[in-house]
User: Fold this.
Amino acid sequence: MSGEEIVTVRGKTGGDWGIFGKFLYGTYIIWLRDMKRLIRDKHQFFGSFARPILWLLILGMGLRPVFTVNDEVDYIQYIFPGIIVMSLIFSGMWAGISVIWDREFGFLKEILVAPIPRTSIVAGKVMGGATQALLQGSITIFFAPVIGLRFAFFDILLMIAIMLIISIALASLGIVIASRMYSYEGFGTVSNFVIMPLFFLSGAIYPVETLPGWLKVLVSLNPVTYGVDLMRGVVLGMRSFPLTDDIAYIVGFGVAMGGLAVLLFRKY
Amino acid sequence: MIKVDRLVKKFDDVVAVDDISFEVKEGESFGFLGPNGAGKTTTIRILTTLIPPTSGGATVDGYDIKKESDRVRESIGIIFQEPSLDERLTAYDNLYFHAALYRVPKREIKPRIEKALKMVELKKFKDKVVNTFSGGMKRRLEIARGFLHMPRVLFLDEPTLGLDPQTRRVIWEYIRNLKDDFGVTLFLTTHYMEEAEESDRVGIIHKGKIISVDSPENMKKRIGRDTIVLSNSDGNERAVRSLGLDVVRAGDKLLVSVDSSEDALKKILKGGVSLENLAVKRPTLEDVFIELTGTAIADESGGTMDVVKQAVRMRRMR
Assistant:
C-alpha cells in the first residue's frame, strides 16, 4: 500500500499520565469537541444569545407597569439576575441534550470505549454546558447598561464566578436527567417539566417574601432560588436569604448532582 | 492475544452467552460466525469492557477485562455494528478527536490521519461534514478511525452489515490492507459466509454456545464430501447407481455425495451418464454450519443451495 512509512511508533497510547492527568486531559477533549460543535451550529449559537434579551424586554416591559419593587429599583432591573439564571438553566439542559444526541447517533459508544475515565466524560459535558452558559450570561451582562444598570469591574468578576457555580450545578442536573433518558422527545418533555418550575418557582420574576405559605415552601426547596438570590445580591444589593445559605444550597446542590451524574454514568 | 474462559452473560433469564471459551492468537484474524442473536455482539461488548460478564472471565492483550478495563481499552479498537460518528463534524475532526482521545502523540496525529484517509480513499472529503456522506463512506471513515491509534486488537462487529455487495468487497480490501500495514489482531463477527472465509480461524457460535473453532479449510475438510449435481432422469439414476455411488433424488436433480469429486467424475464420464446440468459443489462454511447446527444461517430460498442443504440434512438423518 502507500509506500510512506510515517507511522512507526506503537505501544501504550501516550504513556503513563496518572489518574488525575488522564482525568484532566479526557475532560479537556470532551469539552473541546462540544465547543467545536457549538461553534459549528450557528443557529443554536446565536439563537441562545437572543433568548435572554427577548425575555428581559418582553417580560420586563410587559410587567413593569404592574409591579413596583421599591423606589430605587425598576422591575426590569429586578428580573435581570433572574433572566441571567434562566439562560443558565437552558444551557444546563443543553448539556443533557448533547448526551442524548450522542447516544442517538451512536457517538456515545465511541467515547465510552475510549481510554478515558468515565468521570471525565461527565466533567467534560458539564464544563461544555457551563461554558455555553457563561457565554450567554456574559452577553446578557453587556446588555445591562441599556436598562440602566452599571457594574464595577470586581462585581462583574463576582457575577462570572456565581454564574460558573450555578451553571455547573444545572449542567450536572441536565446530565443526570439525560443519563436515564433514551429518546430526544422524552428528554424534551421531562426537561420542560424541570425548566418551568425551576424558573417560575425561583423568585426570578417576583419577590419571595410576600408569597403565600405553600408557595414559599416550594420556592425555598428550589435550589435555583438561592442562585437567583446570590445574583441579585451582587446586581442590586438586595437579598432574601442569608449569604451563607445561598452559597451552601447552590454548592451543595451542585456537588450532589455532579456526584449523582458520575454515579449514573459509571453504570454504562 | 485474547483468552476467553467460561464466559457467561445473562440478561434477566435469557442466556445470551453460554459458557464459552476460546483463544485468539497474536496477529491472526478470528471470525465469529453465527446467525443474528447467537451472542456475537454480546461477546464483543464484554471483551471491549462495555458490559460486565455474569460469570467467567477473559483477558485481552494480557489484561483482565474486569480488573484492568482501563488497560484493555488502551489496547483495543472497535468498529461498531451501528454508526458511531459525530455527524456534525468533518471527517478530519472525527479522526482528530479519536486520535486525541487515545492520546496519539501530537506530532503524529496529522500524518496518521492523512495516511488513514488516503487508504480508505476519503482524502478529497477530508473537510466535508460527515452527515453528507453515503453509508459506505461513513463505514470507510469508521474503519480508518478504528486503525488510527494502532490498537493491538481490533474488534469489528458486522463491519459490512447493510452495505451492498460491491461496497462490501471494497471495505474488505481496506481492512486487509490496513491489517497488513498496521499489523493488528482482528476479531470480527459476521453472518456472511464469504467474510468468515477471509479469517485465519473461525469460531462458530449458535444459541450462545461455541460449537467449533478451526480454520475454514479444516472445517470444510472435516465434513468432507463433495456433491456432484446431475439432472434427474430414470436412466441417469440407474446409471449412477450401477457405478456404486451414493445418490439422493432432489426434485429435477440428482445429488451424488462423494469423497473425491475427481475420482467420481472420472467414473461418471466413463459410465454413460448424461452430463446435462452437471455441477460440482465443494463444501462451504454454510454446509459446515448446517452440519454442526442442523439449521441454515440465513434463510435463502430457491436455487441449488436449498436442494444441497436438503440433501445434507437427509444425510444427517440417516
User: Anything to note?
Assistant: Residues 98 and 125 of chain A are 8 Å apart (CA to CA). Chain A touches chain B at residues 1-2, 4, 6-7, 9-10, 12-15, 17, 25-26, 29, 32-33, 36-37, 40-41, 102, 105-107, 109-117, 268 (CB under 8 Å). The radius of gyration of chain A is 21 Å. Chain A has one domain: 18-266.
